[in-house]
């Protein structure tokens, strides 16, 4: 069966699991939480690169066939016609994805950055006796050291943020749609309608009162229960931040997609 592959990427704690749970209500679609394919993609590229003595036997056409075959075989048992693979790294792979899948689109979930840091910190504090994989299962530290680790170039947030900017300002920005967490939770009907239009798919009637997704076993193993929890009803949640004022302000101006001057014209925004 000829399948259509699309990708969900963007920033952590910005609604990718919620969006996947909603999209999965459509029987033609398959979507889920972040999976292993992006890591496998990078590993295969490395093994087929010049660091291998056998790289002289592999040209770009063969590399593309191997990488495309990885997707086809990983999802071989999936009956869905349209597959959304999720990983924050896909924004950094847009040039390659555009060649492997000429009609592919990438949905990048974004959120006001201080609230991403707040959301992660809230999980850490809720699971005070369970060191998290987010920080390599290392206990201790402070809210400031954890924020610094998140925002570093190799941190959960820093890497994803840099990859997002690379995609937004790159040559394939027209394949990208930014979906704000704030819009998704407040206006799910309008958000999904815009996503279907972006994908060129017929609209499906989703149930925003009965959304479900279960990743409790994965979250427990990651030392972060609740990491992929999805509330049954899609709605915004008002709350106060856990971040000290100076830390909150440190990230307050990072939402470049909300700035008309910095937002790339080729990139759609919901």
TrEMBL record:
For this UniProt entry, the molecular function terms from Gene Ontology, in alphabetical order, are: transferase activity
Q: Please identify the protein, giving its name as recorded.
A: Sulfotransferase family protein
UniProt keyword list: Transferase
Organism this protein belongs to: Rhodanobacter umsongensis
The taxonomic lineage of its organism, from the top, reads: Bacteria, Pseudomonadati, Pseudomonadota, Gammaproteobacteria, Lysobacterales
Q: Which Gene3D superfamilies does the record cross-reference, listed alphabetically?
A: P-loop containing nucleotide triphosphate hydrolases
Enzyme nomenclature, EC number = 2.8.2.-
Q: Which domain of life is it from?
A: Bacteria
Q: What top-tier enzyme class does this entry carry?
A: transferase
SUPFAM superfamilies noted in UniProt: P-loop containing nucleoside triphosphate hydrolases (SSF52540)
């Amino acid at each position: 069966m000829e399948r259509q592959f699309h990708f969900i990427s963007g920033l952590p704690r910005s609604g990718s699991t919620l969006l996947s749970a909603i999209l999965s209500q459509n029987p033609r679609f398959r979507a889920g939480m972040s999976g292993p394919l992006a890591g496998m993609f990078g590993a295969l590229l490395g093994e087929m690169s010049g660091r291998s003595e056998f790289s002289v036997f592999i040209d770009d056409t063969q590399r593309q066939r191997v990488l495309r075959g990885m997707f086809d075989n990983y999802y071989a048992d999936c009956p869905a016609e349209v597959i959304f693979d999720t990983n924050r790294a896909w924004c950094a792979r847009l040039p390659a994805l555009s060649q492997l899948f000429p009609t592919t689109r990438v949905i990048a979930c974004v959120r006001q950055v201080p609230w991403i840091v707040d959301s992660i910190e809230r999980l850490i504090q809720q699971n005070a006796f369970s060191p998290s994989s987010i920080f390599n299962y290392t206990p201790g530290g402070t809210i400031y050291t954890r924020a610094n680790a998140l925002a570093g170039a190799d941190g959960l947030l820093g890497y994803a943020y840099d990859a997002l900017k690379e995609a937004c300002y790159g040559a394939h920005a027209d394949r990208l749609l930014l979906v704000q967490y704030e819009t998704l939770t407040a206006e799910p009907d309008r958000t999904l309608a815009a996503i279907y239009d972006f994908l060129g798919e017929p609209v499906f009637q989703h149930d925003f009162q009965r959304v479900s997704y279960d990743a409790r076993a994965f979250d427990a193993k990651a030392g972060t229960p609740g990491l992929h929890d999805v509330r049954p009803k899609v709605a915004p949640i008002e709350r106060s931040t856990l971040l000290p004022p100076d830390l909150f302000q440190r990230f307050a101006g990072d939402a470049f997609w909300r700035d008309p001057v910095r937002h790339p014209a080729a990139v759609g925004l919901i």
